[in-house]
Q: What sequence folds into this?
């Protein structure tokens, strides 16, 4: 049995927003119509300053709708060719929207700042992680353990904020 009765027949929500917040909100509102309980949805990706904050919401399909991580990374590196290492600033962002019965209760965001390097390092993570150098730990996200990554990542930050919101709601604050 699924989390919600009939979940296997639920139509998928189309992510066609122009921002992470739009996509997260749209999904949370859409799925909240299927239950009386709270529903959260997220959207996340990488934004590179030298690329005008791209790929942004197109992170997963940067090199095309059927692209894999390798193709996305190669396109990113090609577009950053000639950009000095110090100008390859980037951040991962994760926006989480919490909704209930068609109403947004809160929206939170987490970020992790770093640099895009030319060569991959590490075997963990996914997506752009082997190229995303995190200066405070002097490693890429692909070199971090799952625990380390949760402590410093955009997703970890966003979900800690969501948990704080929920705790405040329970405490009546």
A:
């Amino acid at each position: 049995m699924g989390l919600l009765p009939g979940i296997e027949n639920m139509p998928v929500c189309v992510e066609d927003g122009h921002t992470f917040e739009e996509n997260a909100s749209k999904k949370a509102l859409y799925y909240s119509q299927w239950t009386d309980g709270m529903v959260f949805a997220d959207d996340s990706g990488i934004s590179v300053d030298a690329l005008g904050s791209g790929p942004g919401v197109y992170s997963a399909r940067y090199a095309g709708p059927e692209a894999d991580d390798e193709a996305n990374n190669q396109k990113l590196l090609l577009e950053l060719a000639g950009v000095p290492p110090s100008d390859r600033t980037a951040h991962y962002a994760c926006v989480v929207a919490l909704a209930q019965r068609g109403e947004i209760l809160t929206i939170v965001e987490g970020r992790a700042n770093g640099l895009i390097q030319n060569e991959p390092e590490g075997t963990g993570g996914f997506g752009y992680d082997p190229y995303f150098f995190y200066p405070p730990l002097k490693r890429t996200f692909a070199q971090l353990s799952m625990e380390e990554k949760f402590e410093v990542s955009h997703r970890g930050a966003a979900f800690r904020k969501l948990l704080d919101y929920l705790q405040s709601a329970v405490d009546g604050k």
Observations:
- DSSP finds four helices and six strands in the chain.
- The two ends are 35 Å apart (CA to CA).
